[in-house]
Amino acid sequence: MSTRVEPLAGFRVGVTADRRSGDLIAALERRGAEVLHAPSLRIAPHDQDGPVVDQTRAVIDERPEVVLVTTGYGVRRWFEVADAAGLGAELTDALEQAEILARGPKAVGAVRAAGLDDHRGAREYDTTAAMVDDLVAAGLTDRRVAIQVHGYTDELQVARLREVSTQVLTVTPYRWVSPRSPERLNRLINAACDRRLDAVAFTSAPGVEATLAGADEIGRRADLVAALSGDVLTVVVGPMTAAPLRAAGLEPAIPDRYRLGAMIRLLCERLDVERARRFRFGEHRLEVRGHAVLVDEQPLLLAPHALELLRLLVRQERVVTRAELMTCLSDDPDDHALDVAMSRLRRSLGVPGLIATVVKRGYRFAGVPEN
User: What is the structure's pLDDT at 167?
Assistant: First the structure.
């Protein structure tokens, strides 16, 4: 009977998120992934909410005519801070008089949960830019405007608002601060640079910037960019998260729908369909899935050097020279060390003839690709 293989089985995925990281990690692990989690940022604690209180007082005093809401969590955090400061009723009263545009279903849901009305709720916005476009198209210019931003201010859209509005107030209900244990992030960065990860998933632009900055601090930014440009798949939740990666010369994978679930589905598709290698050899079937190997649907436990040898062999459709193969070994290997390693790999695979010796030249993988 065929054993069902989960779409992320064998793949190692790095996660840098703080907020909602548990949901993301659980979803990846249910699909078979091994997850390395290292928050690149964390949300500032409530005892640092003084600036949010000041911004809230400004909104109450100025009574904006238009309010742009960018995240559901931001709305909930805003009202938590306002309530703690005794300003919740006044904030509700101020926002009830405004035309509210909310980005995405979670922001819409948070607005409604606060007892407010998203006046243009029939229109679903995926980006802040789309909200600003609609504001202009609807003639909502020359107004007092407030925008709830989310730790990574889209300066271009705020500048556009200032060009068409009489006043623009920004409210940042949550801010990002450095993680308590930067060593965890360093381990994730090094794992990506050394190709010990198959993918890294980013859920916020500040998280991307903090990861790149962390790589700078340990002298591995160039290594990280090189890894994320090819060997390590980079997936983001939406175009705003992609912006700092694009500024670094990278082009991450972005789902059609800018949602966490869509990002997970895209990650599964790109790894399972594009990066899992499947082969036939006689009656045998071999599958190389990231850092795992299955022979006849049974997982094998290979030593790191053996796995690297096999991965190098299956990537090539030719004889791989002894010199090339020795780069997978450590401690200044010689011909004898390579022969011993290849012998152990063959025994582990248990499929005679799958790795053929080409005398005086090297070795060749004899499996026939299925994909």
Answer: 96
